[in-house]
Amino acid sequence: MNGETKYYEFKLIARNDNYYVFENYIYFDFLNKKILIPQGLNFHKENNFSENIIQPSGLINYGHSCFINALLQCLINCIPLTKYFLSDYQKTNYKNASNIYQDFIKKYQKKDSNAAKNIVNYFLNSDSSIKNTGSDSKDVLLDFFDKIQSELKNSEVSIIIDESTNPENELDVIKERINLDKADYSIIYECFNFWIESEQKCCNKHCQKYNKNLYEIRSESYFVFYLSEIYSKKYTNYQYGYSGRKYGYYNKLSLDDCFNYYLLEKGNCAYCQNNLYNKNKICKLPRILIIVLNRGKNNTFNVNIELNEEIYLDKFYQKLKYEIKELKYENCPKYKLLCGTILKKNNHNPGKGHTIAFATDYYGKYNVYDDNNIKKNVEFGDIKNEDVYILFYQMEKSH
Length: 399
Description:
By secondary structure, the chain is an alpha+beta fold. The protein has a domain at 1-48. Helix content is 26%, strand content 25%. α2 crosses α6 (137-152) and α4 (97-109) runs antiparallel to α5. The longest helix is centred in the middle third of the chain and has 16 residues, at 137-152.
């Protein structure tokens, strides 16, 4: 090699039958003998920090903080979010959730097992809705998103829409949603935001809205599935208060069951209160899809979830038919399991338990994080049989 030539090294993070995938989304297509490099990528060593992001590090449990530790292990494995805090986020001159989270990531990179101390204290202080008893990872996720979103969004002006006055023109609804998202835009929106469009039509011939389409588009950052409701819908002879596992064969739900129920046709007309024809669909996809499996009070509803490493939302996704430059019109991609939390129940005390996390590494292997203990190269079969709680799926890149 010529000693004067400058070379850049990139870590191999995944591979399959057609591609070698390197950090910074560089692909080597060895079948066609091509290297694919993202447009506009600058080769600066200081930007090449992916290797340190994902290095497993344990977190000390400060008495009752396992549910916070587990959620943090998931969030730090959301690479776009972590990269933002390491490269683009600029500290303000006062203490807030964003600053504390950035400090946590930097300490985590150094494999500091005390990295979570400040953020645990932040979530457990008197000003937070999270307490050290009676809360779980879902509460931390919702509180974290609310705080980060409010600190980083583009506009400080809150916009309130009266949903009872939905415009009848779908295009106007879409443009209104785009304007709202521009005002509220943040890294949370960029990574996790998706849209649910509801197309409604009243079935009452005497209603002023009969045969008129009403549109609503709402913006969400996570799906929350209430398993007891979904279970009782699927198994109509189920009586609330008893675990599905007691019925032998009727003891499980699939994620398809959950999406079907979530997007079910339901609702009443705002004008006459009669039944509506209500068609719900996902019309804008997130980069990282979050699913919360709500098991009721104290997480005591014990139904098995058929967990898949890959999921497809094509049955629930429909592209918007309008050509609007702010929207992407990609085909519905595959989502691959990235990380999640697991509930370890206390059989002697149903209201108590322990929360751990799992996440994939560069090579697609699973690591399990039990506070400051890490178990590497865990098989997916060992994870899918657990009581999974919060799941993070990452959109697969189209090649």
